[in-house]
Design goal:
The complex is a heterodimer.
Chain A: H1 2-30, E1 40-50, E2 53-66, E3 70-83, H2 86-91, E4 95-110, E5 113-124, E6 127-140, E7 145-160, E8 163-184, E9 187-200, E10 208-212, E11 220-224, E12 230-244, E13 248-259, E14 264-276, E15 280-291, E16 319-331, E17 342-360, E18 374-389
Antiparallel strand pairs in A: 1-2, 1-18, 2-3, 3-4, 4-5, 5-6, 6-7, 7-8, 8-9, 9-12, 10-11, 12-13, 13-14, 14-15, 15-16, 16-17, 17-18
Chain B: H1 3-21, H2 44-57
The chains are: A mainly beta, B mainly alpha.
């Protein structure tokens, strides 16, 4: 009798041990971190207003998963541009145009590996761009580490409105590598590197270089810009996000950029995200950016064709910008839109201040040539969007 | 007692598993990491737009997260 009881206990323990062994074998599979993005629809109105330019329009992004391993996404985006910027006022007249962008994406999840493909097409009256991209992401070490890499290839066709004879092309190659690491139960860090190669016609064909010209009353004239036909750039960034015990987070970013045109740039960003109750998210952020100028940039060249490459594009000049942002997200009560699992309404505002160190305001006609006031402007960016999870 | 070999196998599997996947932050300690406040860019449509604004106004590009796509930033 006693022997029967012992055997029964042994059988039970045996089964328990087998169960534990099976669980141990399955553990790596049970802790898969790489997951597909959830099904969601985003509808956004975006607006940029600053420096005489207004750019706004709608944007829509939809994502749908199929069979837990495949996710497809599609995007639609429009920029409606109305510009009387300093560049336009100096050498041309106010214009309006529209840019439309379509994108599709495909993600495939296999165990701990996420593979993605993307295609984007952008069209405006004087510029067409097509980009294809591919990426792969893999988690390691108990899902605390994620390594991502990707590449993209873009082909651009550049035209000039009013000049049907002008046509030029440019190619763009991007290679990126990123490592995300869970450091503690409250801290995640990401380091990234990206190399970009541009080849072809890289100018903005409307922008002009300025040179001293004593033969005209105002003392200067303009000529077409001439850029090198290649540009290589490298960027490195470190980002961290830390959880605060009152269900908030602080995020810090830093990036360094360096390119073959002689431009070095750095930016830092701090973001604080705070929850209020279950339904409100409030965000505040600050970003500082600064860059040096391109080797072939000058606000005022000493004479026409002063060098083989010429630029007076303020985006290639030395400048700094600071921006502040505030935003709020509200999760709508489920009963309002019961067809969705979750719905949010979001309003974000960013204010930018750009200060140029060697780009002068040529509209300051009272000053002597080359001594005009330095240019600067501020811009407001609005993002108003609705997000629906289903 | 024939459970000893199975227990040994289980211990070996546990040790091997530890090499491959035992994290210093355990799965049950990741509640905070999974919270939406811990997402770098929780709304791709909004983050993508802001990256587009940066790339149109600044010479620096790349290593910023999820931006991309063609850009006719005249």
């Amino acid at each position: 009798m006693q022997r029967v009881a012992v055997e029964a206990v042994v059988v039970v323990i045996n089964r328990l041990m087998r169960g534990i062994a099976a669980l141990l074998l399955l553990l790596p599979l049970l802790t898969t971190a790489e997951v597909l993005q959830p099904d969601r629809l985003d509808v956004m109105y975006h607006s940029y207003d600053g420096g005489g330019a207004t750019i706004d329009g709608p944007s829509v992004l939809v994502r749908k998963n199929i069979a837990d391993t495949v996710s497809i996404s599609a995007g639609y985006y429009v920029d409606m541009v109305s510009s009387a910027s300093i560049d336009v006022l100096a050498t041309a007249s106010e214009y309006s145009e529209e840019r439309t962008e379509y994108s599709i994406g495909l993600d495939y999840l296999h165990d701990k590996t996420l593979m993605s493909l993307g295609y984007t097409s952008s069209t405006e009256s004087d510029y067409e761009a097509e980009t294809v991209s591919a990426g792969v992401s893999q988690t390691f070490f108990g899902d605390l580490t994620t390594l991502s890499m990707g590449l993209s290839f873009g082909e651009n066709l550049v035209g000039v409105n009013g000049n049907e004879d002008f046509s030029a092309s440019a190619k763009n190659y991007r290679y990126r590598l990123s490592l995300s690491q869970v450091l503690t139960k409250s801290l995640i860090a990401v380091v990234s590197a990206e190399s970009i190669i541009d080849e072809g016609f890289l100018n903005n064909p409307y922008r002009q270089a300025r040179y001293k010209d004593s033969s005209v009353p105002r003392g200067y004239s303009y000529q077409s810009e001439v850029y090198p036909l290649t540009r290589n750039s490298d960027a490195f960034s470190v980002r961290g996000i830390y959880y605060l015990p009152w269900r908030a987070s602080v995020r810090a970013d830093a990036r360094y950029h360096d390119d073959s045109w002689g431009i070095s740039a750095t930016n830092i960003e701090l973001r604080y995200l705070h929850t209020v109750g279950q339904d409100w998210l409030v965000e505040a952020k600050y970003r500082a950016y600064s860059q040096s100028q391109a080797d072939f940039y000058s606000d005022l060249f000493p004479f026409r064709d002063a060098q083989n490459f010429l630029a007076r594009d303020k985006e290639l000049s030395e400048f700094s910008s600071n921006s502040f942002g505030l935003g709020v997200t509200y999760t709508l009560p489920e009963r309002w839109l019961s067809i969705f699992e979750k719905s949010t309404v979001n309003l974000y505002w960013d204010n930018f201040q750009f200060d140029y160190d060697d780009f002068r305001n040529v509209l300051d006609s009272e000053a002597a040539v080359g001594e005009e006031s330095l240019y600067g402007f501020d811009a407001n960016v609005i993002r108003l969007y609705f997000s629906f999870w289903y | 007692m024939n459970i000893a070999p199975l227990a040994r196998v289980s211990l070996v599997l546990l040790a091997l598993g530890a090499c491959a996947c035992t994290p210093w932050v355990k799965p049950y300690e990741r509640e905070h990491l999974a919270d939406q406040v811990m997402s770098f860019d929780r709304d791709p449509i909004a983050a993508g737009y802001l990256h587009h604004v940066y790339e149109a106004r600044e010479a620096a590009r790349g290593a910023e997260g999820g931006s991309g796509g063609g850009c006719g930033c005249n």
